[in-house]
């Protein structure tokens, strides 16, 4: 693997700062919010609830990469406005996915972190374009990407000048289909070994089942993830996207409390 | 699977016409050429050799999606000029990969078929953009895409108005690593069953090994593929990309002859 | 890969002789019969039909490795008697699966070829035991076995003295679940390259869908398989095991004719 | 999935008792020892060290299922005598793998728990045979077994009368080859949801890399595994089998301490 900038040899540790939040340091960072932004009300409610429960960053998709063109595709710029507003109201940085290099300037007005989704992990035009910007980029692992390919994709971003990359493990595709994907938690210590970027885990896509999100999250904290990205919805049954893997406010609050407890416990080791 | 336009229910058969070539009809179509365009000389020589051996369409990559940013990335527009010229000189339609929606207008001047590569199979911005055009689109299967996801990606293109989609099986990612990918030849009859698009096979990426390309190609013809896309290079050892899976002129000529023989033999069944 | 006896370096070509049939030579060998032996009548009828259609060897399972203990487990020794009898009546060698080293002596009275199933590819006690015998062994590839592991399993057999090993590709497990398994046809040329054993293909398990068996079989012949093993049942809808992937007599006869035509065509290349 | 005896509907919880140890209860159970028994000295030393560090059960392989017949195959009955002796000296129950139904009576004299290895997860003769016995059986997940197939394999055991089954997740085979297998930790909560058996994790085979064993183990405890099975060797570099994934005494002691700390922490949630 030829990594000049993404490899551990070149740097000990990258801590990405967004507002008052540090990703990659000692603090456990929780990113939470709905899979898709559906309305201003939904987002404001969710932002308040997850903030109160301890989440530091708000997520919400405005451009949704959906397998079928007939599925809900997101609210676009209108959704980003809601996201930006909800973030400001609650003093939370916000993250949203970018799918098209032509949208970057527009998204730049609303988001604090650009998310590159799994389907676009090797969309090199997009990687280069966010690499030219200054805002942090969260690069999700591709569904069938090896660790090596993932880090090589990160190299594309860093090579353009932007050093604030956050990696996100979200499950890989295997023969097992009880879960939506197979969450590869070993990616966490491996990424820490091979690179200097923060590594967070997405237990929502990683499992695809709401009842497994808490278990996956606990394991992710115990294995040393710098953070988690969790889908939360005021009413998962009515969600326009991925409701089956979203937590409601109550479950999220309970989980969040547990995660900080486990994180603290690790200091005893 | 919700397919309104890509499904077999909506149409019996799509035959894509490019110049004098029909893809999806009775004739076996062979697309050949180098993985990456390296020079005008390389391309002209290759075009003449593959044309003489029976290939009807010329391929050549000008924008190369490479795992590492330090690998050869292609000659860009300069390469497309060579491709266009070589195609015209030999009366062959040409195909090349597009990676960025912003490049489409430029490529449109030079290519007869747009190729969407495996890494971009779910790059929906790109799919929509080629879907708005009039030139045929060859959509390669993603490395870990199910047949269903692949056809749903085709639906994105057709939904924008462009009905000339050609599907290309190029191997999927599995645990077996003797070959670069595992060529899923069963995709050929399955695609014919579920959709109306022509289906071709790429034995070069599908195996990743020059010595297996002939075997894979024979099987692809026997299973009913409408065509093949084969990497050919004047001197595979010196190739800047994928030399290990490229045929030289002599091997390609010999293979091509065999493939037409097998194709003819199928008429006896 | 450390292969002393199974590797190509040690021998050019193994031709396995069973009765008048040579497996691994120029002739295309077709093994056909029901997944599970259900009754004497079923077997006799099937034997006559497949013999007439050109099959040289009769298959039938008496000990069935089923995922669930509540599925039909086979008729045991009674079934083997039917198999033996049907083989003798039609002058066909017979093959059946052995699952337990303690059953080998008993099976030895009835079968001409021992089959080791996918689930037992690395059941080393069983491999060693059939390796001590004199009858040919057909070793099916494990569901997630690499080519290397498969050949190493063959080495276990040969090391005990029995050199008559036949390898059978039957599909590997991947993320794609439209088919029961992903038939890895490239295994055929690879096995020919790396070892000296005959290699046959099982399109029935390889696809798990009756409507794909013909396509898979054609491709297998074109890629150079020495033979095929195909599930045939007088009335697939009533089969106690794997009916969904079994051909009826008429379809088998039509397919068999096509396969010999394609085989002959290969001599033209 | 048709589970009459292995499913959660039929029983709330199985606690397997071996000597003074309860597997499946509140206590975290650590099984430790060498991959292969190599000598009496090796085993005695290891037993004392892991006992002191908190392990409750001693493991050691006497019959080793190795991919190549030329790899060390284990000491056989001699090794079992060492294991039995080391267990008695240290008041630890012992576990060892059985590969052949004909060996069960012999092993029964020496071991307290029978281990069924991954390669034999669907060796139904072997499953039935250990199912007829009274000693607990630890059933490792097959390399490409779905959760459903794994539980169905357990059903084979229980159906014969033996209800003391322990399941062990040890990684599945995927495209990712940085690790030897992909440890599917989500199997832990899923097994708890679908069945009543204790579920333990093998981080040694699950990762195949000594430097990842600690991370994997921490996550396994946090996700709720009832126990762990960890390979420990006095001198991993000299191990005859799997040295690259074995911990030395010091590392094991440090890890063990951490694991009990995390386990205690879970009581705070």
TrEMBL record, chains A, B, C, D:
Keyword Mitochondrion in annotation: no
SUPFAM superfamilies: Aldolase
Assigned keywords, A-Z: Transferase
GO biological-process terms attached to the record: aromatic amino acid family biosynthetic process
Every DAHP synthetase I/KDSA domain range: 17-258
Class of the enzyme per the UniProt entry, highest EC level: transferase
Superkingdom of origin organism: Bacteria
Gene3D superfamilies: Aldolase class I
EC number(s) on file: 2.5.1.54
Molecular function (Gene Ontology), one example: 3-deoxy-7-phosphoheptulonate synthase activity
Family matches, as NCBIfam families: DAHP_synth_Bsub, PRK08673.1, PRK12595.1
Stated name of the protein: 3-deoxy-7-phosphoheptulonate synthase
